[in-house]
Amino acid sequence: MAIVEMRVPNVGESITEVTLSKWLKADGEYVELDEPICEFESDKATLEFPAEAAGKLIHVAKEDDDLEIGALVAKIDTSVAKADGGEAPREEKPATPETPAPEAPAPARPAEPASGYAAGHPSPAAAKILAENDINPADVKGTGKDGRITKEDALKAVENKTAAPPKEEKTETPAAPATTAGTFSRNSSRKKLSRMRRTIAKRLVSAKNSTAMLTTFNEVDLTEVIKLRKQYQERFVEKYGIKLGFMSIFAKACAKVLLEMPEVNAMIDGDEIIYHDYVDISIAISTPNGLVVPPVHNVESLNFAQVEYKIKELAEKARGGTLSLEEMSGGTFTITNGGVFGSLVSTPILNEPQSAILGMHTIQQRPVAVDGQVEIRPMMYLALSYDHRVIDGSSSVTFLVKVKQLLEDPVSLLLDL
User: Fold this and answer.
1) Within 321-384, where are the H helices?
2) 397-405 contact pairs (CB < 8 A, 24+)
Protein backbone atom coordinates (compact mmCIF):
# COMPACT_ATOMS: atom_id res chain seq x y z
CA MET A 1 0.00 0.00 0.00
CA ALA A 2 1.53 3.36 -1.10
CA ILE A 3 0.38 6.13 1.24
CA VAL A 4 0.92 9.86 0.60
CA GLU A 5 0.58 12.06 3.69
CA MET A 6 -1.12 15.42 3.20
CA ARG A 7 0.18 18.03 5.63
CA VAL A 8 -0.67 21.70 6.18
CA PRO A 9 1.62 23.70 3.83
CA ASN A 10 3.34 26.98 4.61
CA VAL A 11 0.64 29.42 3.50
CA GLY A 12 2.35 32.70 4.26
CA GLU A 13 4.77 34.61 6.41
CA SER A 14 3.77 34.95 10.10
CA ILE A 15 0.94 32.39 9.72
CA THR A 16 1.56 29.48 12.09
CA GLU A 17 -1.90 27.93 12.25
CA VAL A 18 -4.97 27.41 10.06
CA THR A 19 -8.48 26.04 10.55
CA LEU A 20 -9.90 23.20 8.46
CA SER A 21 -13.16 24.94 7.61
CA LYS A 22 -14.68 22.42 5.19
CA TRP A 23 -14.00 19.04 3.60
CA LEU A 24 -14.67 19.17 -0.14
CA LYS A 25 -14.19 15.41 -0.58
CA ALA A 26 -15.70 12.64 1.53
CA ASP A 27 -13.68 10.14 3.53
CA GLY A 28 -12.92 7.15 1.30
CA GLU A 29 -13.67 9.03 -1.92
CA TYR A 30 -11.32 8.75 -4.91
CA VAL A 31 -9.53 12.03 -5.69
CA GLU A 32 -7.47 13.14 -8.67
CA LEU A 33 -4.09 14.85 -8.54
CA ASP A 34 -4.41 18.61 -7.78
CA GLU A 35 -8.14 18.26 -7.08
CA PRO A 36 -9.16 20.41 -4.04
CA ILE A 37 -9.94 18.18 -1.07
CA CYS A 38 -10.61 20.75 1.65
CA GLU A 39 -10.56 24.44 2.55
CA PHE A 40 -8.25 26.10 5.06
CA GLU A 41 -9.11 29.36 6.76
CA SER A 42 -6.09 31.41 7.75
CA ASP A 43 -5.86 34.73 9.54
CA LYS A 44 -6.18 36.53 6.22
CA ALA A 45 -7.85 34.37 3.59
CA THR A 46 -9.58 31.10 2.72
CA LEU A 47 -7.41 28.67 0.75
CA GLU A 48 -8.12 25.44 -1.12
CA PHE A 49 -5.85 22.47 -0.39
CA PRO A 50 -5.20 20.35 -3.52
CA ALA A 51 -4.47 16.61 -3.52
CA GLU A 52 -0.80 15.77 -3.95
CA ALA A 53 -1.58 12.42 -5.60
CA ALA A 54 -4.45 10.42 -7.08
CA GLY A 55 -6.06 7.73 -4.97
CA LYS A 56 -8.40 6.99 -2.09
CA LEU A 57 -8.73 9.87 0.41
CA ILE A 58 -8.49 9.05 4.12
CA HIS A 59 -9.51 11.83 6.50
CA VAL A 60 -7.30 12.44 9.53
CA ALA A 61 -8.29 15.91 10.71
CA LYS A 62 -11.88 17.02 11.31
CA GLU A 63 -13.77 20.12 10.25
CA ASP A 64 -13.18 23.13 12.56
CA ASP A 65 -9.89 21.64 13.78
CA ASP A 66 -7.10 24.17 14.35
CA LEU A 67 -3.96 22.80 12.70
CA GLU A 68 -0.37 24.00 12.94
CA ILE A 69 1.76 24.30 9.82
CA GLY A 70 3.03 20.79 8.99
CA ALA A 71 0.20 18.99 10.83
CA LEU A 72 -1.25 15.86 9.20
CA VAL A 73 -4.54 16.56 7.41
CA ALA A 74 -5.24 13.43 5.40
CA LYS A 75 -3.71 10.43 3.68
CA ILE A 76 -4.06 9.24 0.09
CA ASP A 77 -3.83 5.56 -0.78
CA THR A 78 -2.32 5.66 -4.25
CA SER A 79 -2.60 1.87 -4.70
CA VAL A 80 -6.36 2.19 -5.19
CA ALA A 81 -7.38 2.63 -8.81
CA LYS A 82 -10.34 4.73 -9.89
CA ALA A 83 -13.49 2.72 -10.55
CA ASP A 84 -15.96 3.46 -13.37
CA GLY A 85 -18.30 5.24 -11.00
CA GLY A 86 -15.57 7.47 -9.68
CA GLU A 87 -15.31 5.75 -6.27
CA ALA A 88 -12.55 3.59 -4.90
CA PRO A 89 -13.28 -0.09 -5.55
CA ARG A 90 -14.10 -2.25 -2.58
CA GLU A 91 -12.06 -5.35 -1.78
CA GLU A 92 -14.05 -8.63 -1.96
CA LYS A 93 -13.10 -11.62 0.17
CA PRO A 94 -12.95 -15.01 -1.61
CA ALA A 95 -15.77 -17.44 -0.94
CA THR A 96 -15.12 -20.05 1.79
CA PRO A 97 -17.23 -22.87 3.23
CA GLU A 98 -18.09 -20.58 6.14
CA THR A 99 -18.72 -17.57 3.92
CA PRO A 100 -20.96 -18.13 0.92
CA ALA A 101 -20.05 -16.41 -2.33
CA PRO A 102 -21.79 -13.08 -2.85
CA GLU A 103 -24.76 -12.98 -5.17
CA ALA A 104 -24.28 -11.56 -8.64
CA PRO A 105 -24.72 -7.81 -8.61
CA ALA A 106 -27.87 -6.33 -10.08
CA PRO A 107 -27.45 -4.75 -13.51
CA ALA A 108 -26.24 -1.18 -13.19
CA ARG A 109 -28.60 1.66 -14.01
CA PRO A 110 -27.73 3.71 -17.03
CA ALA A 111 -25.47 6.61 -16.11
CA GLU A 112 -27.07 10.01 -15.85
CA PRO A 113 -25.64 12.97 -17.78
CA ALA A 114 -23.47 14.26 -14.93
CA SER A 115 -22.38 11.22 -12.93
CA GLY A 116 -18.80 12.13 -12.08
CA TYR A 117 -17.44 12.42 -8.56
CA ALA A 118 -18.01 16.19 -8.59
CA ALA A 119 -21.58 16.12 -9.93
CA GLY A 120 -23.81 18.39 -7.88
CA HIS A 121 -20.93 19.62 -5.72
CA PRO A 122 -20.41 23.40 -5.81
CA SER A 123 -16.99 25.00 -5.87
CA PRO A 124 -16.11 26.99 -2.70
CA ALA A 125 -17.03 30.29 -4.36
CA ALA A 126 -20.29 28.82 -5.71
CA ALA A 127 -21.15 27.30 -2.32
CA LYS A 128 -20.87 30.68 -0.62
CA ILE A 129 -23.06 32.38 -3.22
CA LEU A 130 -25.72 29.64 -2.94
CA ALA A 131 -25.65 29.77 0.86
CA GLU A 132 -26.00 33.56 0.90
CA ASN A 133 -29.06 33.35 -1.34
CA ASP A 134 -30.62 30.31 0.36
CA ILE A 135 -30.43 28.10 -2.75
CA ASN A 136 -30.17 24.32 -2.51
CA PRO A 137 -27.21 23.02 -4.60
CA ALA A 138 -29.43 20.07 -5.60
CA ASP A 139 -31.60 22.53 -7.55
CA VAL A 140 -28.64 23.84 -9.58
CA LYS A 141 -27.29 22.12 -12.68
CA GLY A 142 -23.50 22.12 -12.78
CA THR A 143 -21.72 22.87 -16.05
CA GLY A 144 -18.18 22.44 -14.75
CA LYS A 145 -15.93 19.43 -15.04
CA ASP A 146 -17.75 16.19 -14.12
CA GLY A 147 -20.89 18.20 -13.35
CA ARG A 148 -19.33 20.46 -10.71
CA ILE A 149 -21.33 23.63 -9.92
CA THR A 150 -19.24 26.64 -10.88
CA LYS A 151 -19.44 30.23 -9.70
CA GLU A 152 -21.18 31.14 -12.97
CA ASP A 153 -23.80 28.42 -12.37
CA ALA A 154 -24.45 29.84 -8.90
CA LEU A 155 -24.79 33.42 -10.19
CA LYS A 156 -27.22 32.20 -12.87
CA ALA A 157 -29.28 30.41 -10.21
CA VAL A 158 -29.46 33.64 -8.19
CA GLU A 159 -30.65 35.52 -11.29
CA ASN A 160 -33.32 32.88 -11.98
CA LYS A 161 -34.50 33.04 -8.38
CA THR A 162 -34.74 36.83 -8.52
CA ALA A 163 -36.61 36.76 -11.84
CA ALA A 164 -39.08 34.09 -10.70
CA PRO A 165 -42.60 35.44 -10.01
CA PRO A 166 -43.51 35.58 -6.31
CA LYS A 167 -45.67 32.82 -4.96
CA GLU A 168 -49.30 33.66 -4.35
CA GLU A 169 -49.97 34.16 -0.69
CA LYS A 170 -52.98 32.62 0.96
CA THR A 171 -55.61 35.10 2.08
CA GLU A 172 -56.77 33.06 5.02
CA THR A 173 -57.10 34.98 8.25
CA PRO A 174 -54.17 34.05 10.50
CA ALA A 175 -54.99 32.39 13.76
CA ALA A 176 -54.58 34.46 16.89
CA PRO A 177 -51.18 33.89 18.49
CA ALA A 178 -51.17 31.64 21.51
CA THR A 179 -50.45 33.37 24.80
CA THR A 180 -49.22 30.42 26.80
CA ALA A 181 -45.62 30.45 28.00
CA GLY A 182 -44.91 27.27 26.09
CA THR A 183 -45.00 29.12 22.73
CA PHE A 184 -41.95 31.25 23.57
CA SER A 185 -38.61 29.78 22.50
CA ARG A 186 -35.84 29.59 25.09
CA ASN A 187 -33.42 27.71 22.87
CA SER A 188 -29.83 28.81 22.34
CA SER A 189 -26.99 27.50 20.25
CA ARG A 190 -23.23 27.64 20.41
CA LYS A 191 -20.97 27.96 17.36
CA LYS A 192 -17.22 28.20 17.18
CA LEU A 193 -15.86 31.53 15.91
CA SER A 194 -14.32 31.28 12.47
CA ARG A 195 -10.58 31.89 12.29
CA MET A 196 -11.13 35.12 10.37
CA ARG A 197 -13.61 36.35 13.00
CA ARG A 198 -11.15 35.46 15.78
CA THR A 199 -8.38 37.32 13.95
CA ILE A 200 -10.59 40.36 13.45
CA ALA A 201 -11.47 40.33 17.14
CA LYS A 202 -7.82 40.18 18.21
CA ARG A 203 -6.82 42.98 15.84
CA LEU A 204 -9.63 45.26 16.96
CA VAL A 205 -8.89 44.74 20.66
CA SER A 206 -5.19 45.29 19.97
CA ALA A 207 -5.94 48.53 18.12
CA LYS A 208 -8.00 49.81 21.05
CA ASN A 209 -5.46 48.78 23.68
CA SER A 210 -2.15 49.62 22.01
CA THR A 211 -2.89 52.93 20.25
CA ALA A 212 -3.87 56.40 21.44
CA MET A 213 -6.89 56.50 19.13
CA LEU A 214 -9.01 59.61 18.72
CA THR A 215 -11.62 60.58 16.11
CA THR A 216 -12.26 63.97 14.53
CA PHE A 217 -15.29 64.84 12.37
CA ASN A 218 -16.25 67.15 9.56
CA GLU A 219 -18.95 67.28 6.90
CA VAL A 220 -18.67 67.69 3.16
CA ASP A 221 -21.08 69.10 0.57
CA LEU A 222 -21.10 66.63 -2.34
CA THR A 223 -23.06 68.83 -4.74
CA GLU A 224 -20.14 69.30 -7.14
CA VAL A 225 -19.04 65.67 -7.00
CA ILE A 226 -22.56 64.46 -7.82
CA LYS A 227 -22.78 67.03 -10.62
CA LEU A 228 -19.42 65.89 -12.01
CA ARG A 229 -20.45 62.22 -12.01
CA LYS A 230 -23.80 63.00 -13.63
CA GLN A 231 -22.21 65.15 -16.33
CA TYR A 232 -19.42 62.76 -17.33
CA GLN A 233 -20.70 59.33 -16.29
CA GLU A 234 -21.91 58.28 -19.73
CA ARG A 235 -18.66 59.30 -21.44
CA PHE A 236 -16.61 57.70 -18.66
CA VAL A 237 -18.40 54.35 -19.05
CA GLU A 238 -18.12 54.56 -22.84
CA LYS A 239 -14.35 55.03 -22.66
CA TYR A 240 -13.39 52.82 -19.70
CA GLY A 241 -16.24 50.31 -19.43
CA ILE A 242 -16.77 51.00 -15.72
CA LYS A 243 -18.75 53.55 -13.72
CA LEU A 244 -17.13 56.47 -11.92
CA GLY A 245 -17.96 55.86 -8.26
CA PHE A 246 -17.56 57.88 -5.10
CA MET A 247 -14.82 55.61 -3.76
CA SER A 248 -12.26 56.42 -6.47
CA ILE A 249 -12.86 60.16 -6.01
CA PHE A 250 -12.43 59.89 -2.24
CA ALA A 251 -9.36 57.69 -2.66
CA LYS A 252 -7.69 60.13 -5.06
CA ALA A 253 -8.50 63.09 -2.78
CA CYS A 254 -7.02 61.27 0.24
CA ALA A 255 -3.94 60.20 -1.73
CA LYS A 256 -3.21 63.79 -2.75
CA VAL A 257 -3.49 65.08 0.83
CA LEU A 258 -1.54 62.13 2.26
CA LEU A 259 1.45 63.01 0.08
CA GLU A 260 1.20 66.59 1.37
CA MET A 261 0.92 65.40 5.00
CA PRO A 262 3.24 62.37 5.32
CA GLU A 263 2.63 62.04 9.08
CA VAL A 264 -0.94 60.85 8.38
CA ASN A 265 0.48 58.27 5.96
CA ALA A 266 3.07 57.03 8.49
CA MET A 267 3.14 54.22 11.06
CA ILE A 268 5.01 53.37 14.25
CA ASP A 269 7.55 50.54 14.32
CA GLY A 270 9.00 50.20 17.81
CA ASP A 271 10.74 53.47 18.65
CA GLU A 272 10.73 54.64 15.02
CA ILE A 273 8.20 56.15 12.62
CA ILE A 274 8.07 54.84 9.06
CA TYR A 275 7.16 57.42 6.41
CA HIS A 276 6.02 56.44 2.91
CA ASP A 277 6.47 58.34 -0.35
CA TYR A 278 3.62 56.33 -1.87
CA VAL A 279 -0.02 55.78 -0.92
CA ASP A 280 -1.48 52.28 -0.60
CA ILE A 281 -5.13 52.69 0.44
CA SER A 282 -6.83 49.70 2.06
CA ILE A 283 -10.51 49.47 1.12
CA ALA A 284 -12.83 47.91 3.72
CA ILE A 285 -14.98 45.22 2.05
CA SER A 286 -17.80 43.38 3.81
CA THR A 287 -17.91 39.61 3.15
CA PRO A 288 -20.00 36.74 4.59
CA ASN A 289 -17.03 35.79 6.79
CA GLY A 290 -16.24 39.28 8.04
CA LEU A 291 -14.56 42.53 7.04
CA VAL A 292 -11.40 42.44 4.92
CA VAL A 293 -9.21 45.40 3.93
CA PRO A 294 -7.11 44.62 0.82
CA PRO A 295 -5.07 47.59 -0.40
CA VAL A 296 -5.01 49.39 -3.74
CA HIS A 297 -1.34 50.07 -4.32
CA ASN A 298 0.07 53.42 -5.49
CA VAL A 299 -3.26 55.23 -5.64
CA GLU A 300 -1.38 58.49 -6.17
CA SER A 301 -0.15 57.17 -9.56
CA LEU A 302 -3.41 55.64 -10.83
CA ASN A 303 -6.19 57.39 -12.71
CA PHE A 304 -9.82 57.21 -11.59
CA ALA A 305 -10.70 54.30 -13.91
CA GLN A 306 -7.72 52.25 -12.72
CA VAL A 307 -8.74 52.77 -9.10
CA GLU A 308 -12.33 51.72 -9.89
CA TYR A 309 -11.15 48.57 -11.70
CA LYS A 310 -8.87 47.58 -8.83
CA ILE A 311 -11.56 48.13 -6.18
CA LYS A 312 -14.04 46.08 -8.22
CA GLU A 313 -11.51 43.27 -8.69
CA LEU A 314 -10.66 43.14 -4.98
CA ALA A 315 -14.33 43.22 -3.96
CA GLU A 316 -15.23 40.32 -6.27
CA LYS A 317 -12.32 38.24 -5.01
CA ALA A 318 -13.09 39.05 -1.37
CA ARG A 319 -16.74 38.01 -1.64
CA GLY A 320 -15.78 34.93 -3.63
CA GLY A 321 -13.15 33.95 -1.05
CA THR A 322 -10.30 33.98 -3.59
CA LEU A 323 -8.11 36.80 -2.26
CA SER A 324 -4.47 35.78 -2.06
CA LEU A 325 -2.25 36.59 0.91
CA GLU A 326 -0.23 38.98 -1.28
CA GLU A 327 -3.41 40.89 -2.15
CA MET A 328 -4.24 41.21 1.55
CA SER A 329 -0.88 42.55 2.69
CA GLY A 330 0.28 46.13 2.91
CA GLY A 331 -1.61 49.39 3.10
CA THR A 332 -0.64 52.78 4.55
CA PHE A 333 -4.14 54.27 5.04
CA THR A 334 -7.69 52.86 5.11
CA ILE A 335 -11.09 54.03 3.84
CA THR A 336 -14.30 52.43 5.10
CA ASN A 337 -17.77 53.31 3.83
CA GLY A 338 -20.48 52.62 6.40
CA GLY A 339 -22.82 54.76 4.33
CA VAL A 340 -23.68 51.81 2.08
CA PHE A 341 -25.43 50.29 5.12
CA GLY A 342 -27.13 53.58 6.10
CA SER A 343 -24.70 54.73 8.79
CA LEU A 344 -25.05 58.46 9.49
CA VAL A 345 -21.96 58.84 11.68
CA SER A 346 -19.48 56.46 13.35
CA THR A 347 -15.98 56.23 14.79
CA PRO A 348 -14.00 53.77 12.64
CA ILE A 349 -11.30 51.77 14.40
CA LEU A 350 -7.67 51.79 13.26
CA ASN A 351 -6.33 49.13 10.92
CA GLU A 352 -2.97 48.40 12.57
CA PRO A 353 -0.16 49.17 11.98
CA GLN A 354 -1.62 52.11 10.05
CA SER A 355 -2.09 55.40 11.89
CA ALA A 356 -5.32 56.68 10.33
CA ILE A 357 -8.61 55.56 8.80
CA LEU A 358 -11.27 57.64 7.03
CA GLY A 359 -14.92 56.78 7.60
CA MET A 360 -17.45 57.72 4.90
CA HIS A 361 -21.16 57.80 5.73
CA THR A 362 -24.54 58.01 4.08
CA ILE A 363 -25.41 61.03 1.95
CA GLN A 364 -28.35 63.00 3.33
CA GLN A 365 -30.25 65.95 1.92
CA ARG A 366 -29.90 68.55 4.70
CA PRO A 367 -30.54 72.30 4.99
CA VAL A 368 -27.27 74.27 5.09
CA ALA A 369 -26.38 77.94 4.97
CA VAL A 370 -24.87 78.95 1.59
CA ASP A 371 -23.92 82.62 1.11
CA GLY A 372 -26.47 83.66 3.72
CA GLN A 373 -29.25 81.54 2.21
CA VAL A 374 -30.64 78.21 3.41
CA GLU A 375 -30.34 75.53 0.74
CA ILE A 376 -30.91 71.77 0.66
CA ARG A 377 -27.60 70.08 -0.14
CA PRO A 378 -26.34 66.45 -0.29
CA MET A 379 -24.20 66.28 2.83
CA MET A 380 -21.95 63.55 4.23
CA TYR A 381 -20.27 63.32 7.61
CA LEU A 382 -16.58 62.34 7.49
CA ALA A 383 -14.74 60.78 10.42
CA LEU A 384 -10.97 60.41 10.75
CA SER A 385 -9.75 58.08 13.49
CA TYR A 386 -6.03 58.49 14.11
CA ASP A 387 -3.21 57.41 16.39
CA HIS A 388 -2.34 60.44 18.52
CA ARG A 389 1.17 59.05 19.07
CA VAL A 390 1.94 59.80 15.42
CA ILE A 391 -0.61 62.41 14.35
CA ASP A 392 -1.31 65.62 16.27
CA GLY A 393 -4.86 66.88 16.64
CA SER A 394 -4.12 69.88 14.42
CA SER A 395 -2.83 67.58 11.67
CA SER A 396 -5.94 65.40 11.78
CA VAL A 397 -8.23 68.41 11.51
CA THR A 398 -6.15 69.91 8.69
CA PHE A 399 -6.23 66.61 6.80
CA LEU A 400 -10.04 66.46 6.90
CA VAL A 401 -10.36 70.10 5.89
CA LYS A 402 -8.07 69.57 2.88
CA VAL A 403 -10.01 66.47 1.78
CA LYS A 404 -13.27 68.40 2.21
CA GLN A 405 -11.98 71.25 0.04
CA LEU A 406 -10.97 68.88 -2.77
CA LEU A 407 -14.35 67.12 -2.72
CA GLU A 408 -16.28 70.37 -2.73
CA ASP A 409 -14.17 71.61 -5.65
CA PRO A 410 -13.31 68.40 -7.60
CA VAL A 411 -11.91 70.40 -10.53
CA SER A 412 -8.97 71.36 -8.31
CA LEU A 413 -8.43 67.63 -7.69
CA LEU A 414 -8.46 66.87 -11.41
CA LEU A 415 -6.06 69.75 -12.13
CA ASP A 416 -3.81 68.77 -9.19
CA LEU A 417 -4.10 72.23 -7.64
Assistant:
1) 325-328
2) 397/216, 397/218, 398/261, 399/257, 399/261, 399/264, 399/356, 400/216, 400/217, 400/218, 401/218, 402/257, 402/260, 402/261, 403/220, 403/250, 403/253, 403/254, 403/257, 403/358, 404/218, 404/219, 404/220
Indicate the fold that domain 1-88 takes in CATH: OB fold (Dihydrolipoamide Acetyltransferase, E2P) (2.40.50)
Summarised one tens digit per residue, pLDDT across range 262-282 is 999 999 988 899 999 999 999
Q: 393-408 and 223-240 are packed helices; what angle lies between their axes, rounded to 10 degrees?
A: 60
Pick the CATH number of 213-414 from 3.30.559.10, 3.40.50.300, 3.40.50.150, 3.20.20.80: 3.30.559.10
Question: So where are the chain's domains?
Answer: 1-88, 118-159, 213-414
Selecting among 27, 34, 65, 392, the annotated active-site residue is 392
For the chain, report the end-to-end CA distance as a whole number of angstroms: 73
C-alpha to C-alpha distance for 147 and 150, rounded to whole angstroms: 9
Instruction: Judge whether 392 counts as a catalytic residue.
Output: yes
Instruction: Judge whether 77 counts as a catalytic residue.
Output: no
Pairing relationship of beta strands 295-296 and 17-23 according to DSSP bridges: unpaired
Tell me the per-residue pLDDT of 86-97, one tens digit each, with 9 for 90 and over.
445 554 444 444
Q: Which of 66, 77, 146, 388 is catalytic?
A: 388
Please, which pLDDT band fits residue 114 given cuts at 50, 70 and 90? very low
Burial of 247 (0-12, 13-18, 19+ CB in 10 A): buried
What residue spans of 293-353 are helical by DSSP H?
304-320, 325-328
Edge-first strand listing for the sheet containing 3-7: 3-7, 72-77, 55-59, 30-31
Name all contacts of 139-142 with Cβ < 8 Å and 24+ positions apart: 141/114, 142/114, 142/118
Q: Please state, in angstroms and rounded to a whole number, the distance separating the CA atoms of residues 381 and 385.
A: 13
